[in-house]
Amino acid sequence: MLRYLYFDTYIANNTNISFLIKSPAIKDIWLFNCIEGSQFNFLNQGFKLNNISKIIIPNLHISSISGLLGLFSTLNLIGRTKSLHIYAPIDLKYYLDLGKKYSKTNFSYILYIHVLKTGLIINQYGCRIYSLNYCNCYQFFITQSEQSGTFYLDKAKSNYLLPGPLYGKLKRGFSFLFPDGFILNGFYFTSSNILGCQISCLFSSFYTRSAFESMYNARLILFM
């Protein structure tokens, strides 16, 4: 099942599911797992398949990749031209090559396969994804950086502050001391910052101490 991830604190425990991450500021969608029926669930929730930009596959179990070739074929049929990035174990390449050979299909878009390894794998849009290899299955830890609050433009103009680089610095919380001793505090012109968070995506029933330490501060834990 495809699930939209809201950054609230809870634990989801299910097996054989796909889920996605979508930033409200961009169209790109990152998909974790691609089980059979993913396309139906994806469309049923009102998302567009062509907005998928990254697919993360933790292992080569059939439950994780059974919907992959069908999704690729659908993207080809709808005329996708922009590239697609796949993050998966190295042997996924051979599975895709055999699938294309058997179906006699070539894709109209470029498919980039990034071989998973322990460490940082994605760093975009204020979101970082780290992978940890454990018993030939990868666990993922997703961190979202703290975001600056909303800048009060009307309040800045009412204080006779001219638009320019100063606005950006005030939004980031900088303070300025004037020669007469007056302090211009950036927090006065912005709402409270949006706290960052961590999501742990675990695909195994057995974990090491390092895995537990990594997910200690997680606000959302997914046991897949």
What is the strand and helix layout of this fold?
Elements: E1 10-13, E2 19-22, E3 29-32, H1 38-44, E4 52-56, H2 62-65, H3 68-77, E5 84-88, H4 92-103, E6 111-115, E7 119-124, E8 127-134, E9 137-144, H5 153-158, H6 165-171, E10 175-177, E11 183-185, E12 197-202, H7 209-214, E13 220-223
Parallel strand pairs: 1-13, 3-4, 4-5, 5-6, 12-13
Antiparallel strand pairs: 2-3, 7-8, 8-9, 9-12, 10-11
What does the model show?
There is one protein chain. With 224 residues, this protein is an alpha/beta fold. The chain is 23% helix and 29% strand. It contains 7 helices and 13 strands. It has helices at residues 38-44, 62-65, 68-77, 92-103, 153-158, 165-171, 209-214; strands at residues 10-13, 19-22, 29-32, 52-56, 84-88, 111-115, 119-124, 127-134, 137-144, 175-177, 183-185, 197-202, 220-223. A 6-stranded mixed β-sheet has the order 1-13-12-9-8-7, with no helix packed on it. Strands 2-3-4-5-6 form a 5-stranded mixed β-sheet, with no helix packed on it. Strands 10-11 form a two-stranded antiparallel ribbon. Strand 5, helix 4 (92-103) and strand 6 form a beta-alpha-beta unit. The protein is elongated. Mean pLDDT is 78; it is low at 1-13.
Which sequence of strands runs across the widest sheet? 1-13-12-9-8-7
| Strand coverage percent | 25-35%
Largest sheet: 6 strands, mixed
Number of helices: 7
